Amino acid sequence: MRLAGNKTLDAIKTRCLPSAPYETSNLNLITHNNCIAGLRPGKIRDWSLEKHGAAADLKAMEDRWEAAVGAHDAKTVDGLVAPDFAGVWIDGTSRSKSGILRELKDDRDTYTSTKNEKLDVHSYGPNVAVVIGTAREKGTGKDGKAFDRTYRFTDTWMERSGQWQCVAEQVALVSKK
After folding, report:
1. What is the Cα 69 distance to its own chain's centre?
2. Cα separation of 53 and 97, whole Å?
3. Dihedral of the alpha carbons of 13, 15, 19, 21, in degrees to the nearest 10
């Protein structure tokens, strides 16, 4: 869509985006709900993440986070999670960054395997992405019993000052053996 001057852009913003941020690129107006450009989400995903390697970077960060769980490595997780992080854990309780780090340090489970089995990255503009994935953790609990847990998670990442940070998360326990 070609934009003819600021009056057209202002009219479009007022009608479709009363308070939403916008980005222009190649004379296309890209929005979080695509009301102007008429692009499908797949087009935006290709435009903003895969072409710039960010999707692979986000998957690598998710893998580092899961490996850090098994190693009780709070320093790695601290570098991945935003200071204003907000999350929901499997029992419905809210989690902050400090809560995640405390839980990781207090965890007494011994892990033999921690890995992400599937990660899908969805872009919502050049600096916001959602990663939906499955994490599987195996090991021995503090009670001495073996465990095999599978979680499904949704992480929201935002690029701030050139660095991707996880700003929100929701986790569900899919199976526990």
Report:
1. 17
2. 26
3. -30
Which conformational region is residue 83 in: left (phi greater than 0), alpha (psi within -120 to 50 degrees), or beta?
Answer: alpha
Q: Is CATH 3.40.718.10 correct for 50-176?
A: no
Q: What is the pLDDT of residues 3-53, one digit of tens each?
A: 344 443 333 333 333 344 434 333 333 333 333 333 344 444 444 465 567
Q: How many CB atoms lie within 10 A of CB 91?
A: 7
Q: Tokens 């599937």 belong to which residue?
A: 118
Tokens, residue 43: 């087009």
Inter-CA distances, 141 with 95, 100, 102, 147, Å: 22, 18, 18, 7
Residue 98, by phi and psi: left (phi above 0), alpha (psi -120 to 50) or beta? alpha
Residue whose structure tokens are 């890995």 = 115
The structure tokens 């690029």 sit at: 159
Structure confidence by residue, pLDDT tens digits, 137-153: 999 999 999 999 999 99
| CA geometry: angle 56, 136, 127, nearest 5 deg | 30
Please give the DSSP secondary-structure letter assigned to residue 51.
G
